[in-house]
Amino acid sequence: MPTSIDMIERLISFDTTSYKANIQLIQFAADFLSGLGADIRLTYDDNQEKANLFATIGPADIPGIVLSGHTDVVPVDGQDWSSDPFRLSRRDHALYGRGTADMKSFIAICLALAPEFSAAPLSMPIHFAFSYDEEIGCIGVRRLIQDVTSLPVKPRLCIVGEPTEMRVIVGHKGKKNVRCHVHGKECHSALNHQGVNAVEIAAEMVTFLRHMQKHIRENGPFDHGYQPPYTTIHTGLIQGGTALNIVPAHCSFEFEFRNLPQHDPEDLMAQLRGFAQDLVPEMLAVDGATGIMFDEYNTTAGLLTDDDDEAAVLARQLSGNNATAKVSFTTEAGLFNKAGIPTVVCGPGSIAQAHKPDEFITVEQVKQGEAFVRRLLGRMVRS
């Protein structure tokens, strides 16, 4: 049977950049697991080019444990790699390649140790959940979770193997992505009283978001388990106007909330909508076709799991580390948890290596990940 490093090498060879298909990797994993007697469930995107895999080994009529990871990786375009990013390179006790840290090594460990689960008399099932399009908004896993929660028996708990250096993560921030469209009225800039300047209206709203951030930074709410210890607001894109002597009819900008899990982003949206509504009457007085529209195109739940929850207790025991932590980045764990499956994040590798050229994971981290999963197997065997 292949080792974990053999599996890492195989998985890295699949270019599953988020704007490409992941079907070949999923089919490889499905064939490998079905050969071990696993029950395979696939859920697809609308174009049937990407798929999630949910594989079960063991008695399906008992709540089991999910080991979850995403198969997609971020682009390598424009990055200066010293080796082929889709061919595993081993140097100085480290494994280099796109996805080694984030997060194909965890998936590879699951696959490499799957034969041991298959051969063992399990008291409960082990589930492997491998998703698509995590990197662009935790998109694919939503269909997997919808499918899994419709099963007669829902999983008992879930461990998402994002790179945490085997620390047990019980909290992460949520994220809401919003696109705002401002529709003004175009006219010659010399007669700007006849127009509605969409760029200026958008600028007022961006400034309001900045003031919201300042208020939160100074007044909270705070959770010092995170860095920074408050909800963040960020405007990242803006586009509008056609020429300096034309009052712009259109402007759009995109912003995000990265919220503490106990800080409802809908409250923040309500504040911005209220401010926008105050701007509209002056716009409509010039032209009834003007207005402001919001497109909330992605929302991912934050994670907040109690230290005493079964998932957190188990993960601490398996990792050999009694401490827990929180992180500011967002994962699929919040969505599993929101669906009623208690979840923590714990996996090999460092997030500091993710998304960079010459991404790597140390061999020692792979060994620690293997030890974690083998200890889990020991807990799941019938006595």
UniProtKB/TrEMBL annotation:
MF (Gene Ontology): acetylornithine deacetylase activity; metal ion binding
Record's keyword annotation contains Hydrolase: yes
GO biological process: L-arginine biosynthetic process
Stretches assigned to the Peptidase M20 dimerisation domain: 170-281
One Pfam family named in its UniProt record: M20_dimer
Domain of life of the organism encoding this protein: Bacteria
Protein keywords: Amino-acid biosynthesis, Arginine biosynthesis, Cobalt, Cytoplasm, Hydrolase, Metal-binding, Zinc
InterPro entries noted in UniProt: AcOrn-deacetyl, ArgE/DapE_CS, Bact_exopeptidase_dim_dom, Peptidase_M20, Peptidase_M20_dimer, Peptidase_M20A
Required co-factors: Zn(2+)
Family stated for the protein in its record: Belongs to the peptidase M20A family. ArgE subfamily.
Name used for this protein in its record: Acetylornithine deacetylase (ArgE)
